[in-house]
Amino acid sequence: MERQQDNASDADSDLEELEGDIAKLDETVRTFLADQRGENDASPAARGLLRGKGARGPRKAAKPRGDITARLSKVNQAFLSGDYSLALDLVFEVIRINAETHQAWTTLSSIFREQGDMGKSLSAMVYAAHLRPKDVNGWLQCASFALENVADDEAGNLNTARLCYSAALRADHTNIDARLGKGLVCHRQGHLAAAISDYKVVLEHRTYDLEIVRKLAEACVDNKQAEAAVPSAIAAYKRFFDHERTKPQMEITEAPWHDIGIYVELFASTGRYQEAIQESKSLSRWLLGREAEDYWDQWTSDDREWDLDDERRAAVPNFTAGVWSPDTYGQSFPWDLRARLAIYRFRLGDEDEAMRHLLWFEPESILTREFAGDFPFLTFDLAEELAHRGHTPLAISYYQILRDLPGDADATILLQLGRCYSAVGETATAEEYFLAAIDADEDNIDARIELANMYEKAREEEEALILAAEAMALRQARDQNLEGHQDSITDLEQPSRRAPRRAQAVPRRTDAFGKRLIPRRYRPKRLAGADKRRQEEQARAMKLTEQYEIVQDLRKKIKEGQHNLIPTWMASSKELVDEFRSIKKFYTWDKYLHFLGPKNHLQQQEADKPQNELSQMYERLARTLAPQPGSEGRDDGTSKPDAHQGISFNNWLDLFLDYAIGLAIAHRRDEAYQVCEAARDSTAFQAPEHGFMIHVAWSVCAIYTSDEEKCIATARQLMRDGATSDSYRMFALLSNLCQSPVSWYTSGPAQKPIPKGERTGRQFLMHVSLCFMATFFLRRQATHTH
């Protein structure tokens, strides 16, 4: 009986254990199903209530298979031992088996990083992040790595970083680090509206983060819709300053003077000058410990609070001298804020109060020069306001201080100096500054317009027309650029006086082939005295002679085997060729203006578009100077020169042709043809022997660049100039040297004028023409550098 009870007891315990295992299995199944459906509660009641409302997304990745794990272990061993090639082979094998192995891609990224291939490393890291799209840290690491290596491919890496931050936000839209990173990247990319939006979100959580407030202010000021964006930056700064003013004075470790300047400039950027003045004075008073003197907030007619002495302050009823240290008034007021007060007073029309502030900025003072070095843009604004209001001598003093600052010449400052000197009647000095502005910025339109106006008044219509043509070409290129790049033209549409011109390189305007739109040329001073012009011409002639000797010396050294000097020789030759091409007397008007850039401006003017002042000046000068049809090229009976600046025309032509062939050897076909065309069009090279040499060199350029059509065209030109047997032999030679098929020679439209007899005797003429061409090459070899 007891044994039966014991058996029953054992059976019951086994049954209870089995039932417990079944319950655990049921719970595991419910949990699994709940995970698959995204449910948080595995109970039936919860399952009925929460069905369809769980978290969405891919399920967790399964653990790697045993063979994958073994291969990954070998990858790690090879990587740690420094055998990167073996590690690459092994990890690629893992990826071939299962491309969704996250560890394989992270290891591949590490291998590429150790090998120095940051681009591939980033790509592998991003792919690994895609395998775990909900892993925010993975996306943030990818974005950080892309930004660390942004110098390798700035545009591509910035775009990758932005996409990674966006993916992190999709995984967790509350992640502040991802939001801030995305805003910073958008700011660098120029997507200011998106950056402003992200900064606002971050500031909701980090209200008093000064760095983010500064970034927001910078983005708002640079935004095209500044008036709509700036109020948010003002509000952010106001919250920051209100918070700071609640702190005891001793807790402020560093006075935010710089941020006060930014804050008040935000008001000024939208034309709220009176508010800018009030905020600058109120915040300065707080930082100097006189916040209790709030009665100054009611005194808005002038800025006597910040005078050096108490003479005007004593007239204020609430002011009591001696309550506060005199040093907490004018002496302690920062110079940059004082300069801003002067600028704002000018713009409000309060010129007397503005000039009172400028008494602190003596042009001869070393303190003023130090201030200009620290705040060049404020100094520029002061000078500009003075120039607009007729205080030209003082404006010139400030501009000259800016001109003397270390660094490259600033075209904007030189332009303003030219305008100031022109306003006071010193046209010769103004001309020097305008020319200097063009040298500093080859694409400066305003300087060309100012010079053209001056030259027209001085009866120098020829140079005025040239400058007007250049200005029109540059303006047309700028307008086309604005139409094609609407998202990055804020500075061009709205030139900012605060743009950091000295800190930025001036970009050159080029055409579709990368060629400089307006070639550099020598610009003689037309308004200088006769003696000065004569001295300048002599210096210019000496410089050209020295440069020509340098070119000849370089060519000699290259012939001796120093081929590393070829780029230097090419650059020096280009300068001489461009110098010759820039001389108007060697070209007809249409060819010369074509060289300068503008083409058919009068025809391009739209009928329904009103002409601007520049177009009207161009038309006026063109009607005055443009020769009548048939008048150009007419012999006036005077003897023509045979040299320029002491260099004979024959040597100039050799320089042209050598340079053209050098360009062709460097596979710069279009430029080589342009040089040959310039030599052909020059009035200095119109002798028959010159034309023959030009077209032979042109054909050599065509041979080097494998241009069959140009070969045939130049040969036909030689035949038209003189239908001699040598010309026909040259034609046969060029037709064979270009490695073109027989059908080109026998059936091409360019061959139709060739007599049938010439075609049947082609083989014989080939030998003769080869001898002819060899003779030509031997003659050129004595002078050519290649």
TrEMBL record:
InterPro entries: Tfc4/TFIIIC-102/Sfc4 (IPR039340), TPR-like_helical_dom_sf (IPR011990), TPR_rpt (IPR019734). TPR repeats lie at residues 411-444. Residues 1-20, 34-65, 487-508 are annotated as: Disordered. PROSITE patterns: TPR. GO terms for cellular component: transcription factor TFIIIC complex. The keyword NADP does not apply. Gene3D superfamilies: Tetratricopeptide repeat domain (1.25.40.10). Residues 527-554 form a coiled coil. Signal peptide: none annotated. Transmembrane segments: none annotated. Keywords: Coiled coil, TPR repeat. Residues 9-20 have a biased composition (Acidic residues). Residues 53-63 have a biased composition (Basic residues). One of its GO terms (biological process) is transcription by RNA polymerase III. This is Transcription factor tau subunit sfc4. It comes from Fusarium oxysporum f. sp. raphani 54005.
